[in-house]
Every structure is written in C-alpha cells, then in structure tokens.
Design brief:
Blueprint: E1 2-10, E2 14-23, E3 27-30, E4 33-36, E5 40-46, E6 49-54, E7 59-63, H1 69-87, E8 94-107, H2 110-113, E9 125-137, E10 140-144, E11 151-154, E12 158-164, E13 167-172, E14 177-181, H3 187-210, E15 220-222, E16 232-237, E17 241-247, E18 254-258, H4 262-276, H5 287-290, H6 294-301, H7 304-311, E19 313-317, H8 323-331, H9 333-336
Length: 337
C-alpha cells in the first residue's frame, strides 16, 4: 500500500511533505529512507496521525493522510502484526484468533528487550495493558499488541490457566502471569480450548521425553517444539557450568554456558530451546551477525529466555578427537576456580 503524506523524524529534524510512504512486508519506506519493523517500539494513532516510537529514542510521525488514514492504519497494523508473528516462529495449527484485552509483564527499559542493553532484574518489570490480537495454537497462546512486546506463551510451561469472569489468567511455572480476555462470545470457547490444549501438549511432551535416553555425562534432557518428533537436546553440568548437545539433523557443536543459579538457568534453557523451534541458530549466532538479520533481532527481543541463554554463552566445542577431553575440562572448570 502506498499513500502520500507528511513524514517527520525526530530528533533528526527531518520533514518531508507529500512523500510516498509504502507499507511493506518487513517495514515502511518513505522517500529515500526506510523503517524496519524490528526497530519499532510502538505504534499509536493520535488525531489522524500515526506516531511511531523507535529504538534509540527516535520518533516518526506520519500525518496529512486525509481519507487514506483508516486504510493506512489498518494495513500498517496488519503488516506489523504478521511480521511480528513471523518472528515468533509459529509452526503449529491455529485454533482461534480474537481481538482481546491483554495484560503482560514487560521490562521497564525497552532497550533491554531489544537486546541493546543487558536484561534487568525482575524488580524492573512493568505491566503493559491494552487491546490486540490474541491467537490460540495447538501448543501456544500468542499475544500481538501494537508494540514490540508481542509474545508466544508455550502451553507446556504453564502452571495454571483459569477463567475469572471475562479474564483468562495464564500463570507460568516461573511466576510470570499473562491475562487475556473480554473477547465477547469467544471468551469462554477460547478459555476452554486453551485449558484443553495445555493438558494435551503437556501429556504429549512428557511421553516424548520419556523415550529420550540419557548417557554420560548428560543429566538433563529436553525438547524443542512438541510437534518436532525427531529432535532433542541433552545437558551436562559442572558446578556453575553447562554443556548442551543438540541432537538434530544439522551437524552442530557442543554449546557451553556459565551460570549463577542452576534452577533459573535450566528453566531458561528449556524455554529458549522450545522458543527457537527449528531456528536453532538463534541460540549461538554471534551478535555481529544477529544485528544484520532484522527478523532474528525481533525474535530475540521477544524472548527473555533466548536473551538469557545467549548472555550465559561461554563458547562451544567443535566435534573432534579432543572433544571429550575439552568437555570434561570445561565442566570441571568451576571446581578449580
């Protein structure tokens, strides 16, 4: 979709009049410039203007759209939402989609969620509330707001899902809580299906894990997506160190991590592996390569577990004749220090 409008970008002081603005699959093009959806923090319609908050404290304003405003806004939301959903790597069947109210925990500093600054502690989280698209899949609930805080909530890691009035409370095993609701006639069917799917996916995941064996020195095992039948991972632990082996079709190395709290690390490891699905390069791609891939930047920004795991990275061991020796040395490292 292409419309003529005024375009302002601050603090650069850029002002363009009657410029063609094109809504594309992965961003907005204006004149000779471009905004990638990966750089957008939020979208807001204000007095027939579109306010776009960007990383780095920048703000773009699109105005003077005239009668094209409604169509432009709807198309922008649609394309931003589809690109966001793409970054969540949703691979499963969609069961329902509704316009709903939502409430979710977010980091108070948007630069953290985008990977520019390291993660903050739980004390620095806020709550975001609004309306957006909420989708139920066979293994997850996805909340797609008009901000950078979209999230895919895996049903296998929920501790409780319950309907209170018109609000569905989704509680996670790590203590986080999400709320969606006020979907009109879809509220009760959505809740019933979500509860049913959570039970199904947990049972299927438990059955699959039962058939995954452990061999020395590995003591923990886990899956990627529940429907991904032939892949899994194993983890071996030292005092404050972990080595993870991916059992997939790709030829990979053993990935190394250093952590402070084992329980927290294992939770993040399990959730990060589930989040990346078949896009396993997200957990080990170097930062300089990640910044060159906008879709991957969006994916990392929308998964706290993936960011946490990447931050714990301590390198890798290539499969070779000295692999086992190096692995034992690494796992014993913390005992020596």
């Amino acid at each position: 979709m292409i419309c003529k409008a005024f375009f302002d970008l601050q603090p650069e002081g850029l002002h363009l009049e009657d410029v063609n603005i094109s809504i594309e699959k992965d961003g907005l093009a204006y004149g000779k410039g471009r905004i990638d959806y990966a750089d957008i923090l939020s979208l807001k319609p204000v007095n027939h203007r579109v306010i776009i908050s960007l990383l780095g404290g920048k703000q773009a304003v699109i105005s003077m759209l005239g009668f094209s405003f409604d169509g432009f806004w709807e198309e922008l939301l649609r394309c931003f939402g589809e690109r966001t959903a793409e970054s969540l790597f949703i691979e499963e069947e969609k069961l329902m989609e509704c316009d709903a109210e939502y409430q979710l925990p977010v980091l108070s500093n948007p630069m953290v969620a985008s990977g520019i600054l390291p993660d903050e502690s739980i004390r620095n989280t806020d709550v975001e509330m609004g309306r957006g698209r909420v989708q139920l899949y066979t293994d997850s609930i996805c909340i797609l707001p008009e901000t950078c805080h979209a999230i895919r909530v895996p049903l296998c890691f929920t501790s409780d899902i319950s309907l209170d009035g018109y609000l569905l409370h989704i509680r996670m095993r790590g203590g986080e809580e999400y709320m969606v609701g006020r979907m009109g006639n879809d509220t009760h069917p959505f809740a019933e299906r979500a509860i049913r799917q959570a039970k199904k996916v947990k049972e299927k995941r438990e059955e699959r894990l039962f058939h995954v064996g452990l061999t020395e020195p590995f003591t923990e095992k886990g899956l990627f997506r529940t429907a991904d039948e032939d892949t899994y991972w194993l983890a071996a632990f030292g005092k404050n160190s972990c080595a993870v082996e991916l059992f997939t079709a790709e030829k990979t190395a053993t990935y190394l991590y250093i952590f402070m709290d084992k329980r927290l690390f294992v939770y993040a490891l399990e959730e990060a592996m589930e989040a990346v699905g078949t896009h396993r390069e997200l957990i080990f791609l170097p930062e300089e390569e990640l910044v060159q891939k906008p879709l991957y930047r969006m994916a990392v920004a929308r998964s706290g577990a993936v960011r946490f795991l990447r931050r714990c990275s301590a390198g890798r061991i290539i499969h070779s004749a000295t692999h086992d020796e190096k692995l034992r040395e690494f796992l014993d490292l913390e005992k020596v220090l």
